[in-house]
Write a structure and sequence with these properties.
Elements: E1 2-5, H1 10-22, E2 28-31, H2 40-47, E3 52-55, H3 57-63, E4 71-76, E5 89-93, H4 98-108, E6 114-119, H5 121-138, E7 141-146, H6 153-159, E8 166-168, H7 178-190, E9 195-197, H8 200-203, E10 209-213, H9 215-230, E11 241-242, E12 246-251, H10 252-258, H11 264-268, E13 271-273
Parallel strand pairs: 1-2, 1-3, 3-4, 4-5, 5-11, 6-7, 6-8, 8-9, 9-10, 12-13
Antiparallel strand pairs: 10-12
Helix pairs in contact: 1-9, 4-5, 6-7
Amino acid sequence: MVVVQGLRVAPYEEALQGFKSVCKAKITRLILTEMEGKEVLGKIKALRPELILAIGMSGLLRVKSIKKIPIIYLMTLNPQSMLSEDDHITGIDMNIPQERQLQLLREALPEVKTAGLLYDPEETTYFVQRAQKAALKEGIKLIVREVHNSQEVPSEIKKLKGKIDVFWMLPDITVCSPEVIEFFLLFFLENNIPTLTFAKKYVEIGALMSIETDPFDMGKQAGEMASEVLAGKPVKDIPVVEARKEKVTINLRIVRKLGIEVNEKFIEKVKVIK
C-alpha cells in the first residue's frame, strides 16, 4: 500500500505510527514536500497499490482523483463537502463529536448555562448544526452569530459581551484567522469569559481549555479500516467515522486570571498548563 503524506510534522508521524500498530501491510511512503514537483499520481499508478492512505488535506487533495484504488484519509478537517460522491474513499473525521465536547465542558464548568460561537456559513455550517443539537440536549443556550469575513469578527465578538458564560471556538478559518485570533482571546480574557477551543496552541496563548483529537488513536482507527479493506471489504461499506478519543488540556493560569472555579476532579484527569 501507499501512504501519501503532506509533510513531516509530529501529528502526522504519530498518526502513521498508530496506523502501523494495527495494520501490518508493507508501506511505501510519499512525502509531498520532499518530492520536488515529481509526478505523484504517476508514481502511485506505477506502484499499483491495493490501498492508499492519505494523511492531511494536501495528501487527500493530491490523490482523490484516483478512482480505481481504495483511499482512506485521516488528519483531514471536514473533507465531506468535496467527497460527497466518492464511494471509494472513507476515513476518520478529524472532529471530536460536539456532544462529547459539551459533556466535557459541563464536567469542567458545571455552572455554564450559555455559550456563544461565531462561524462562517461557507466553512462550518455542519459543525454548527451539530453544536446546536448538542447544546439543546445538554440544556445549554447557544448564541450563534454569522460572519462572512475576518473583518466582521471583532464587532460580532463584542456583541457577545454580557450574554455568554463561555465562548466556543470552532475550527473555522474565517473566525480563527491570524488577523483576529489574538484580539478575541484578549477580549475574552479582559471580560472574564473562558474560551473552549480545538487546539492546545490556543490554550497556551489565552484560551481556557482545548479538546482535540488523538493522532495516534486516529491512526489506529484508520489501520482498522485498512485491515478490513485489504481483507476484501468494499470501501462503500465502511462509513466515515469520527475520532473516538480526545486529548484535553486546561490552563490553570487562565483559571486564576478569570477567577473561575473548575471541577477539581476534572483537572486531575486532564493535561494541565500551570
